[in-house]
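Protocol check, entry for the methods section draft. Step 1: assemble the input record (protein sequence plus ligand SMILES). Step 2: submit for complex structure prediction. Step 3: store the structure tokens unaltered in the notebook. Ligand used here: fe (ii) ion. Step 1 record:
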Amino acid sequence: MSINYSERIPNNVDLAHDRTLQRALEHWQPRFLDWWRTLGPHDFEANDVYLRTAVGVDAQGWASYGYVKMPDYRWGIFLADEIPDRKIGFGDAFGQPVWRQVPGEFRAQFRRLIVTQGDTEPASVEQQRLLGHTCPSLYDLRNLFQVNVEEGRHLWAMVYLLHAYFGRDGREQAEELLARHSGDADKPRILGTFNEPIEDWLSFYLFGYFTDRDGKFQLKSLAESAFDPLARTCRFMLTEEAHHMFVGETGIGRVIRRTLEVMKEIGTDDPEAIRRHSAVDLPTLQRYLNFWFTSSLDLFGSEVSSNAATAFANGIKGRPDESQYDDHVCADATFALEVPDGRGSIATDTVPMRNAMNEVARNTYVKDCEIGVKRWNMAIKRAGVDFEIALPSTRFRRSIGAWADVPTDPAGTPIPREAYERRLPAWLPSESDRAFVHSLMRPVREPGKMAAWIAPPDRGINNLPVDYEYVRAG
Ligand SMILES: [Fe+2]
Ligand SMILES: [Fe+2]
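Step 3, stored output:
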């Protein structure tokens, strides 16, 4: 079904034929806009931003580009097309037809998953709301706003499901999604990473690379769901999510490229000298990476989880790209899990595969994270610089699961707590690292110009030149 833009809420779910639902969502819409005005991007309401808006949900030509003032963005409800005769792809009901409604017995579990996913979307907008003031270029400013409006749309995606399938509970939860706020002492966002401040663009790119990628894997798991409207919603969200990770990956790549240029110019790898030339030294980048990667690992949940097991058994949440596996039921399969042995070493536990689904997803995520790291390291190597960026072990600095609060070094080797505390400043951004990175954050808003600490992108948006005026005074 094509997207209807003539309605107050653009949609491809035939909203006009369900007046009750339409009214409920039209009631929520001004609250969303209020939230956007108070906690969305600070300033820039009047600017014309060169944004992409969804116009269709098929693989080709689903976006149109043009100048939009952000508060006028057409947030809507878009589901990927139905797959005819789609069957449940995993769990106890494997091979049976998918569901158009939520079975009563799974309602609470579905609602919790949808609320948790929905909560992350506005959270990231809140986390990034001040970044516009320190953009390194108009190109980046536009990308930030593109990500922000799409996270707003992802909130709409989850709110639609809550309103359409969860009755009064769902409507209440939709209100709560606007009542919790990132970093709020009384009503924080649900997941830890989404309460961390994002105060500089280095963090923004790393968040895009690591945390939006967690989003990708959560959405991939939910896109397998037996509850078909959820699966279709997530499938479409994934097409938008890809751009967020692109912004992250290319952002970090450009930071590295600029650093390598500076190192060549001044002929040293001394971090202080590099900093004096307004570039980010690679050890600082590594410490920032350690922070965002480890924080994002926790988002997958505990290694062993009975919740994950029931979600899988009941067809609620599958594995990312379920089709890559042979066994979709996993009734007897097991998983070898590395756990702390309580005496400062690593032991292996054999657990039922279904209970290890969080860890399975986390492992595929880590593999995906490695692709960009490899690319960055190639650039470093090509420049003749002896430095390698590395992802820390999934055992390092965890707050959730088997390795929570177990002191290890970044390679994942258990070490005494005292040594961990002592060495942590070398592994995570220090106060002075943060002060330095903040000192670089000065706005550059002349078309085509870049801040000193970042190289220009290879190309502009939608085949436009890099020096296009992607954001202009309204
Ligand atoms: Fe999102
Ligand atoms: Fe995202």
